[in-house]
Amino acid sequence: MASPIIQATGIEKYYGTYRALSNITLSVANGEFLALVGPSGCGKTSLLKILAGFEDLSGGSLIIDGQDMAGMPASARPTRMVFQKLALFPHKTVAQNIGFPLHLAKRPKSEIDTAVRRMLELMHLKESYLNRYPHELSGGEQQRVALARSMISQPPVLLLDEPMSALDAKLKKSLQAELKHLHRHVGTSFVHVTHDLEEAMMLADRICVMRAGKIVQIGEPSEIYYRPADAFVAGFIGDTNLLPAKITRAGEGFEFSCDILQCSAPRLGADQVAAGVAAGADALLMIRPEMLRLLAPGESADCTLAGTVSEYFIRGASIQYRITVADTEIVMDVPGTSVLPAKQGDAVQLGLSLSDLFAVEA
Amino acid sequence: MAEMQKSWRDGALRLSTLPLLVLMGLFFVIPLIMTALLSFQGTQYYRLVWTWDLNVWTDVFSQIHYWKIMWRTLTMALVCTLLCTVLAIPIAYGMLHRLSRWSDQITLLMVFAFLTDAVLKTFGWVLFLDRSGVLNGTLESIGFPPAAVNVLFSPNATMIGMVYNLLPYTIFTTALSMARIDRDLVLAARDAGATRLRAFVEVTLPLAKPGIWAGAVLVFVLSLGVFLEPKVMGGGTSPLAAELIRQSFETRVNWPLGAALTLVLIVIGAAVLAVAGALAFWQARRGSND
């Protein structure tokens, strides 16, 4: 791998005495799609503004595209931003909006015109839009114009600040797919801030989970989903069952005991326990809803749970069950079928493979 | 347009505009008509005579003196409008962005100054600018010759007074317009490669245009009617139209002449505004077709 396009080392950001970012060290490879996720106020937007040059660093260093960003204004940086509210210029036409970065760079009119038309095609926008004003376009079209404006000068890094948060679910889905396609097509590095984990998993090569100004975990989507660093990451991403358990070391791996779970051989591999878990301490066993399945009478599994159905939701592709197991509510997703496998109040047996279990610090 | 046509057919809506119509009719349209009618009468022995002739108008159009004053009034008003508009832009911008921490205090001080009686403020300027006033005294104490600044009782002093008294209008309208601009738009321009100045020219200025125009129109209309500043600070040596009209009514007790001169001033003001409006409209049209 060549040298990273973004290299942030020990970044600190204070607003007065409030520490918004502490010791952020992060690198983004050339052409990578990185998602920054976390709850509101976790510092992900502050970090993006620091990358864009809208905020100063309080400490640490930032190198983008081989240049030190210290003291470099946003206008001189090799980054372009797509704003949350898009920030299209209302007094400029679509063509003027898209061509604005080239217009500022004093490029010849014919060159700007060609580039604008090329972006229009790339973004699947109609040519008749060129002389319209942003407010005359739909939300999705405005989104594409904003993307086109930030991509036209082919920046090495594109920063996206939750640009899809205002769109309705269906439009969001189709634009997400387009964004992913665009990323493959242009080879620019994307840093995408979002609070929508599903979006991050769908789009990103790597996900950086933040909380309270710190990076909690950086990894590929599957790593974040199946091997979360702690209970916060596990709970932040999708529905999760976290069952209290005791973990003890046993040879290469671990043994565990959990009141709710009946296992014939309660063992975990060395890679099934998160880094922070101390042997002999309390831990939480993470079970994703889709890892559970309904057992037919007489059928067996590595681990089993017995409970009663308290509620179910038909969600099309899947059916979600809420099952009460000894005062604990367990969430289970099973593939959708036309014949409901269990109804409210039914006593059910749930099965689970040992290899799906993962333990995090309590 | 369709909405407007529809609303005019709405009886309840028409009824609800009645108070305003009555008010405007009683205190604007009817006085204006009376002024127009008055200009066709004559005076004898300081008394109004209902003669219904064009004597006053013949007088107005044959005396170059009136037109010189009208011309001076118009140029002073245009210069004052230009100065107030241009000065307000950096002041409003600075207040909102560079001195945003003190923005409330600055606004408060400006409102105080704005609401203080104009007579008081104008005499304050006289005390400040007088040959033996505060400014010259201070300058003398640091080594300047006596009466270094000798501006009082000249058209320039009138202009200082006019700009001082009318500047708040343009500052407030411009600042209001600028404050409504989404900060992200300026950041987007900076992000796209614009320097601070370029971002200001490309984004802030065009988006603040409505407020800048509104302020300019307000100041122009108000500056056509100034009488205090030419009298107090200009020393009455070069009176403007309002002073001429006041004299016609009060000193010469020639109401028909005063009415005619009033109409001339109104027509000049309206014509300038119409031309400016047409220019702005034409420019906007051209901009959108570009």
Explain what the structure shows:
- The complex is a heterodimer of chains A (362) and B (290).
- Helix content of chain A is 23%, strand content 35%.
- Chain A is globular, with a radius of gyration of 24 Å.
- A six-stranded mixed β-sheet of chain A has the order 6-7-8-3-9-10, with helices on both faces.
- Chain A has helices spanning 44-52, 94-104, 109-122, 139-151, 169-186, 197-203, 221-226, 231-236; strands at 6-15, 18-28, 33-37, 59-64, 67-68, 79-82, 157-161, 189-194, 206-211, 214-219, 241-250, 253-257, 262-263, 267-268, 282-287, 293-294, 303-314, 318-325, 328-335, 347-352, 358-361.
- By secondary structure, chain A is an alpha+beta fold.
- Chain A folds into two domains: 6-231, Rossmann fold (3-Layer(aba) Sandwich), CATH 3.40.50.300; 239-361, Nucleic acid-binding proteins (OB fold (Dihydrolipoamide Acetyltransferase, E2P)).
- Chain B is built from 14 helices and two strands.
- Chain B has helices spanning 2-8, 11-16, 18-38, 55-62, 64-98, 103-115, 118-129, 134-141, 155-179, 183-191, 196-224, 228-232, 241-250, 255-289, and strands at residues 42-44, 47-49.
- Chain B has a two-stranded antiparallel sheet.
- In chain B, strand 1 and strand 2 form a beta hairpin.
- In chain B, helix 10 packs across helix 11.
- At the A-B interface, strand 6 and helix 2 of A face helix 10 and helix 11 of B.
Assembly state (oligomeric)? heterodimer
- What's the mean pLDDT score of chain B? 90
State the total count of DSSP E strands of chain A: 21
- Low-confidence spans of chain B: none
Domains of chain A (count): 2
Q: Which spans of chain A of ≥5 residues are poorly predicted at pLDDT below 50?
A: none
Going across the biggest sheet of chain A, name each strand in turn.
Answer: 6-7-8-3-9-10
Briefly summarize what is shown.
Chain A has 362 residues and is an alpha+beta fold.
List the helices and strands and how they pair.
The complex is a heterodimer of chains A (362) and B (290).
Chain A: E1 6-15, E2 18-28, E3 33-37, H1 44-52, E4 59-64, E5 67-68, E6 79-82, H2 94-104, H3 109-122, H4 139-151, E7 157-161, H5 169-186, E8 189-194, H6 197-203, E9 206-211, E10 214-219, H7 221-226, H8 231-236, E11 241-250, E12 253-257, E13 262-263, E14 267-268, E15 282-287, E16 293-294, E17 303-314, E18 318-325, E19 328-335, E20 347-352, E21 358-361
Helix pairs in contact in A: 2-3, 2-4, 3-4
Chain B: H1 2-8, H2 11-16, H3 18-38, E1 42-44, E2 47-49, H4 55-62, H5 64-98, H6 103-115, H7 118-129, H8 134-141, H9 155-179, H10 183-191, H11 196-224, H12 228-232, H13 241-250, H14 255-289
Antiparallel strand pairs in B: 1-2
Helix pairs in contact in B: 4-14, 5-9, 5-11, 9-11, 10-11, 13-14
